[in-house]
Amino acid sequence: MVKRPSRSLKHAGTDKIQVLVVAESAIRRAGLEALIRSSASLTLVGGGSHALLRAESERENDVILFDLDSPDALAEGFGPAQSPVVALVDEPDPASVAQALRENVRAILPRDSSAEQIEMAIEAVHQGFTLLDTAAAVELASRVAAPRLDSEAPALDDLTPRELQVLSLLAEGKANKEISSALEISEHTVKFHISSILDKLGVATRTEAVTTALRAGLILL
């Protein structure tokens, strides 16, 4: 379980966490809704198919419990979801997990998770944590190679916080103009940072810089 930046809780005292259930299967949805109703700490505010999330993105809720019947659906995004998402999906690939975490997904569990595990995930997400089941975490970690320990390893510690931001955006395939807009700096400054990154990492291209950073565990795809 990884702690994310803390956020103020919407409810205090004994107030229950409001949960919106989204599932394409009516049977799965009914089961998850029953789970929420039986919980002493959760309350059901609504349920429906995936279209509900797009049509009612402003619905008052604390957490969205989203059942996905296909691993591919995890990479398709969650549209305008404003609340943190607990996603139930089987055998997601690492790229989909990484993409989902960049959006508003804060927990990923197998669809056969127990009621206790799902309730725990909802409560953890509501408190600002990110939670992955062991298999998903191991698969995601396997995408990042261990740092090189040889004497010829680049001076990774010399990268500034801003250069790390630029490097992360490079890993997402952003162009100079997009990086400039995202960081609110000029394109000239972006080029300066990229040149500095290449020099410090001892590489000649953006692709090599991203590959080096991935191997060192500085960034995740």
What does this structure look like?
The chain is 43% helix and 15% strand. Strand 4, helix 3 and strand 5 form a beta-alpha-beta unit. It has 10 helices and 7 strands. The N terminus is likely disordered. The protein has a 7-stranded mixed β-sheet, with helices on both faces. It is elongated and about 60 Å long. The protein folds into 2 domains: 140 residues, Rossmann fold (3-Layer(aba) Sandwich), CATH 3.40.50; 60 residues, Winged helix-like DNA-binding domain superfamily/Winged helix DNA-binding domain (Arc Repressor Mutant, subunit A), CATH 1.10.10. The longest helix has 15 residues. Helix 7 packs across helix 9, helix 8 crosses helix 9 and helix 9 crosses helix 10. It is an alpha/beta fold and 221 residues long. The two termini are 19 Å apart.
Uncertain stretches: 1-14
Shape: elongated
Structural class: alpha/beta
Report the top-level CATH class of the largest domain. Alpha Beta
The overall pLDDT, averaged over residues, is 79
Give the radius of gyration.
Answer: 20 Å
Tell me roughly what share of residues is in helical segments: 40-55%
Largest sheet: 7 strands, mixed
- Write out the strand line-up for the largest beta sheet, numbering strands in chain order: 1-7-6-5-4-2-3
Percent in strands: 15-25%
What is the ordering of alpha helices and beta strands?
EEHEHEHEHEHEHHHHH
Q: How many domains, in number, for the residues?
A: 2
- Determine the N-to-C terminus distance: 19 Å
Q: Please work out how many helical segments DSSP would assign.
A: 10
CATH architecture of the largest domain: 3-Layer(aba) Sandwich
Assembly state: single chain
Q: Please identify which CATH superfamily of the largest domain we are dealing with.
A: Response regulator
Number of strands: 7
Report the CATH topology name of the largest domain.
Answer: Rossmann fold
